[in-house]
Write a structure and sequence with these properties.
This protein is about 35% helix and about 15% strand. With about 280 residues, the protein is an alpha/beta fold.
C-alpha cells in the first residue's frame, strides 16, 4: 500500500510539473523579450552628477588673453598689363623670367575706366611706343577709395601676377606718383623684401618706418615748387632713411610743381638704374 501511494504521488507531481512547464517557459521568454526591447536612453537623459554653476564674480577681474582667428579677405583690382617682346607663356618649359614693374597712379586716375591709368607714367610711355624689357602692371584704384592705395590689395595683385606669368622674383620694382608715391613708400615699408628697388615720385610716408628700407635701392623724385604735396614730404622720408643708414638717391626739380613725374619717367637714367637692381 505504501508503495502504491508513493508511486501515485510521484506521478501526480510529474503531471503537475509537466503542466506548469509551458507556462514557466512562456513567462521566461516574455521576460527576455521585455529586456531585449527596452530602448536605450539618450546620453542627455541618463542621470549624471549635477555640476554646480560657478558663483558670480564678487569683483571685476582683468586677465590677459589672446585671440587667433584665420580670416579670408577678397581683393580685386583691374589693371593694364603689358608683356614684353619675346615673352613666352609660363606654361612653356624653361620660359625666360622677366622683371616686373608695378606702377601706381595718382588720385585723379581712380575709377573703373582703365584708359585713365594711361594718362601718366609707364602706361603713357608704352602707349607712345616705348618698350620696356619687363612685364609692366598698372592697377587702377577704385573711385570710392578714401585713403589711397591698399597695401593688401597691391601685394595680392603682385602675388597673382607672379602666379600667372614668368616673373623673376629677384627683380620686382615698385614706382608711383602722388597718391601712388605715397603708396610706393607705404607698401615698400610693409614688405621691403619683396622689391629689388623703388622709385616714389612726389609722395610721402611715415618717417618712423623708413628704417625698414635700409638696403633697398631707392630713388626719390619731387618738384621743388610742388604746392599739392610739399617737397618736405619726400625730404623727411629721405632724411629718416639716411639717418637709419640708407643711401637713397634724391632728385629735386627746381621750379617744377606737382608734375615732377613727367621729367622723372622721361629720365633714361632712371630706367637704366632700375633694371640694374637685383635682390
Amino acid at each position: 500500500m505504501n508503495l502504491t501511494h508513493s508511486t501515485s504521488r510521484s506521478r501526480a507531481r510529474a503531471r503537475l510539473r509537466s503542466a506548469m512547464a509551458p507556462g514557466l517557459l512562456l513567462a521566461a521568454l516574455a521576460a527576455c523579450r521585455s529586456e531585449a526591447v527596452q530602448p536605450l536612453l539618450p546620453q542627455a537623459e541618463r542621470s549624471s552628477p549635477a555640476v554646480a554653476a560657478p558663483p558670480p564674480l564678487a569683483q571685476p577681474v582683468t586677465s590677459r588673453e589672446r585671440s587667433a582667428r584665420e580670416i579670408t579677405v577678397k581683393s580685386e583690382l583691374a589693371y593694364l598689363l603689358t608683356l614684353p617682346r619675346g615673352y613666352v607663356d609660363a606654361s612653356v618649359a624653361d620660359a625666360p623670367r622677366w622683371p616686373l614693374v608695378v606702377f601706381l597712379h595718382g588720385m585723379g586716375e581712380r575709377g573703373s575706366d582703365l584708359s585713365l591709368v594711361a594718362r601718366h607714367g609707364p602706361p603713357k610711355l608704352i602707349a607712345a611706343g616705348r618698350e620696356f624689357p619687363a612685364i609692366v602692371v598698372s592697377p587702377q584704384c577704385p573711385l570710392q577709395t578714401q585713403f589711397g592705395w591698399s597695401t593688401t590689395a597691391v601685394l595680392a595683385l603682385i602675388d597673382d601676377v607672379c602666379e600667372r606669368h614668368p616673373v623673376d622674383p629677384a627683380r620686382i620694382y615698385l614706382t608711383g606718383l602722388s597718391m601712388g608715391g605715397y603708396g610706393t613708400w607705404a607698401i615698400a615699408c610693409e614688405q621691403p623684401q619683396r622689391f629689388a628697388a623703388i622709385a616714389p615720385i612726389c609722395g610721402g610716408g611715415d618717417p618712423a618706418k623708413a628704417a625698414a628700407l635700409v638696403g633697398l635701392p631707392t630713388w626719390v623724385f619731387h618738384g621743388g615748387a610742388d604746392t599739392v604735396v610739399p617737397l618736405a614730404q619726400s625730404a623727411s622720408m629721405v632724411k629718416a632713411l639716411e639717418a637709419a643708414g640708407g643711401t637713397p638717391k634724391f632728385t629735386v626739380y627746381d621750379g617744377v610743381g606737382h608734375d615732377s613725374w613727367s621729367a622723372a619717367y622721361a629720365h633714361e637714367a632712371l630706367w637704366e638704374w632700375l633694371f640694374a637692381q637685383h635682390r
